[in-house]
Amino acid sequence: MRLKTLLSSVCIVGTFLSTITDTDAALLAEAALAKFAGVTTAHVARTGAVRYIAPSFRGMASRIVWPFMGVQTRATHSKVFEHEFAVATTDISFKQLLDPSNDKEVIISFLNTFVPTFAHNPVKEVEPASIVIPSLPRAGDGDRKEKATFMDLHVKSESGASYLVEMQARRHILFDERALFYLCNTYGRQLSEAEMRTKDWYRSLKPTIAVQVLDYDSNRIRGIKDRDMEDMQVKRVREHPLPEGEYIKHYTMKDGHSGQELDHIQMVQVELPRYITRPLFPPQRDFSPVEWWLSILRHSAEYSQDYIDTLSAEGITIPDVVQKGFERLSYHKWNPDMQKEYRLQVEDREEFEAMYAVERAEGKKEGKIEIAREMLVDNVPVSSIAKYTGLTTEEVEAIRDGTLVDERT
Q: Which one of 28, 68, 90, 399 is at 20 to 30 Å from 346 when CA atoms are compared?
């Protein structure tokens, strides 16, 4: 009822300010609706509720109503939007960065930089390929199909090999298994019906390589809580952690006894936070191609064109392909729909990071409590437990007495 009243009121007020317009004010309107409805602005944006508000209100809201109300919005609360270049690790930025539809040099450089040289021949040319994973008909529904699944990027090289490229800013359960499904599905669908009808159809099969850029360190994962299944990556990492200093995983089909390897299905994962050889920003004169790529992927928003222009005076030359990448990430040159989607993705990411920080803090506190309980069982003095866990003496005593209150409830 409160949301309905709000919509009615703002539309009435908006009619008196029909001469004031501002496209970006839609974001501000979303923020206010979210505040009244008790949901996130991303949720409001996806419902399309703002389209019911008169355009005139949008302009009025950005200049008068929301500042008066003290509403903080996606358009104003994040310094990300003040930067000249978009954060490269959002989905829309990543696709824009590597888009092969016009200049293919950028994605060719990316592939030749991150796919291990022993995994493929250097890529010289690529063509865009289908990003759709077709769905199967549902039982009893005739020809009706499930919603199709879409990959981020799919290109084929001059040799016929397929490359599936994806950005994953945050991990979800069974991510590796999902990526393997995309990989195998693409490999299995690479031949046309005409090719499949030939006697030696299998001679036409070409390798399929998936490349995932991950904005997290798999060695530091704590596990994702799920009601139905265990987070199996935690066990894999615990038993086989990525060695110190390594930041690329390369999965292949390899026989565990002989070591013989099949190279037609491969998966490469680049874990951005794990590159610790040296800082990636500010750039150095002797940056290698891979360090330039890692710098733009991790620090794109910290660059500006003015800063880039000053680098040459310092003897630092940005490779042409990296310069082209920055041009593609020039956020303020994107069309309004792309800008809006980018803002949504940034907000979702910031909300997730805030939630993740809280969960990590809670997880650390839970871990300390469990340690304290074990120490109490071993009759360790309360003062010593407080000293080594960081808990207060009162908290340790409450754990001992069974009166500790869960602050999350």
A: 68
381's tokens: 């003095």
Please say which residue of 77, 107, 135 terminates a domain: 77
pLDDT tens string 170-211: 888 899 999 999 999 999 999 999 999 999 999 999 999 999
Is 44 domain-assigned?
yes
pTM of the model: 0.69
> Rounded CA gap, 376 and 380, in Å?
6
Query: Tell me, what DSSP letter sits at residue 249?
Result: E
Report the alpha-carbon distance of residue 267 to residue 258 in Å, rounded. Answer: 21
- Whether 18 and 136 map to the same domain: the answer is no
* DSSP per-residue codes, 253-303: EE-TTT--EEEEEEEEEEEGGG--SS--SS--TT--HHHHHHHHHHHGGG-
Parallel/antiparallel/unpaired status of strands 208-214 and 162-168: parallel
Q: Do 182 and 60 lie in a common domain?
A: no
Neighbours of 289 (CB within 10 A): 14
Which DSSP state fits 63?
A: I
What tokens were used for 376?
A: 């109490």
Q: What pLDDT is recorded for position 60? A: 46
* More confident position, 277 or 358: 277
391 vs 358: which has the higher pLDDT: 391
Domain span at residue 201 reads 91-334
Across 248-276, average pLDDT: 95
Number of structural domains in the chain: 3
Q: Considering 77, 106, 121, which residue would you say is the last residue of a domain?
A: 77
Same domain as 98, residue 69: no
Beta pairing partners, 248: 270
Q: Count of residues for the chain?
A: 409
100 and 65 in one domain? Answer: no
Residue position matching structure tokens 């609360």: 77
